[in-house]
Amino acid sequence: MDAEHTSAKAPIEILFASDSGYCPFLATALASILTNAAPDDEFSIHLVDGGLTEDDLQKIEELKKIKDFRLALYRPNLREYLKYLRNDISNFPIVVNARLFAEKYLPETLDKVIYLDADIVVLGSLSELWETDLGDNFVAAVPDPKMRASHRQALGLPDDYRYFFSGGLVINLKKWREERVLEKFLDICLEIKDKIEFPDQDVLNTYASRRSYLPLAGRWTCHPRDFVEGDTVVLHYMGSRHRCPNLPILYKYAALTPYGRLPMQGFWYRVRRGLRRALFIFLCLFLPKKQWRKNLRKRFVLR
Fold first, then answer.
1. Of 156, 263, 253, 248, which is closest to residue 202 (Cα–Cα)?
2. N or C: which end of the chain has fewer CB within 10 A?
3. Residue 222's beta-bridge partner residues?
4. CA–CA separation, 43 and 38 (whole Å)
């Protein structure tokens, strides 16, 4: 009995963060993970609650019908850290910054964790990703070869530095605690405050450019336009989701959740988005400068 117990596979520890608006995406991500898990995969889900309702939490619990998992909720006060970030980042919920402060609220007994954005679909077992040997690296991530050179230069990153996505990470929590990386993150937040465009992602990359990180294969964070059947494991529906290819894959797993579908599949969502887009185009007629139009687009969040 004891020998059996000690040989049991350790659970895959996964960190998510979501508010109520993103909870249908979170449920979709979880449904895909549980559906495509290997028979012996076990999961411990760590969820940062950025404003979930009781109904949202009940729907997450219902996903255990697909495959059982452990669920731990966290409600860290992230607002105390906002003074370090640029004040005009209005198109990102506060909760997106949760991964920067993971060492503050996750159990000290946890040495590493997989962080995933809510707007993903997982098409296979995450065991290989979980077993990644991080070595001395503080994080493992997938490089983004399409990140604008102008943005990398604005952050002061070296020309040969490989900027990475922060939507899928393997975080070396033990290293974060030993090196007190949170303090360094906050220093970097202040240093690049006026240049931040992608809040936590820019901070993580600036830190990594001065240290190192472990690059992962593209199949672990892949935009739907780059989907390769049989190879891609994590599809990340980032950016303008309504215009992403391979949406039927996303909708397939949304149908397995208690929500049944995503907000973007609804009629009134499309109507509201169409009206906002029309208003955006109209206002742009009065904004001759490209930067003014770019700033307006951020406020409209045309996704």
1. 156
2. N
3. 235
4. 11
Task: Determine the length of the chain.
Answer: 303
**Per-residue pLDDT of the chain in tens (303 residues, 90 and over written 9):** 444 444 478 999 999 999 999 999 999 999 999 999 999 999 999 999 999 999 999 999 999 999 999 999 999 887 776 666 655 444 567 787 889 999 989 999 999 999 999 999 999 999 999 999 999 999 999 999 999 999 999 999 999 999 999 999 999 999 999 999 999 998 998 899 888 888 899 999 999 999 999 999 999 999 999 999 999 999 999 877 777 899 999 999 999 999 999 988 877 766 776 787 778 788 888 888 877 777 777 666 544
C-beta of residue 112 within 8 angstroms of C-beta of residue 173: yes
Q: Please work out, in degrees rounded to the nearest 5, the angle formed at the alpha carbon of residue 206 by the alpha carbons of 296 and 49.
A: 65
Report residue 53: phi and psi, to 5°: -90, 165
Structure tokens at 129: 């990703």
CA distance 56 to 23: 7
Pick the CATH number of 2-265 from 3.90.550.10, 3.40.390.30, 1.10.579.10, 2.60.120.340: 3.90.550.10
- CA angle (100 as vertex; 109, 117 as ends), nearest 5: 95
> Tokens at residue 33, please?
């993970």
Q: What are the domain boundaries of the chain?
A: 2-265, 267-303
Half-sphere exposure (Cβ direction) of 22: Cα atoms closer than 13 Å: 24
Residues 37 and 7: their CA atoms lie apart, in Å, by: 19
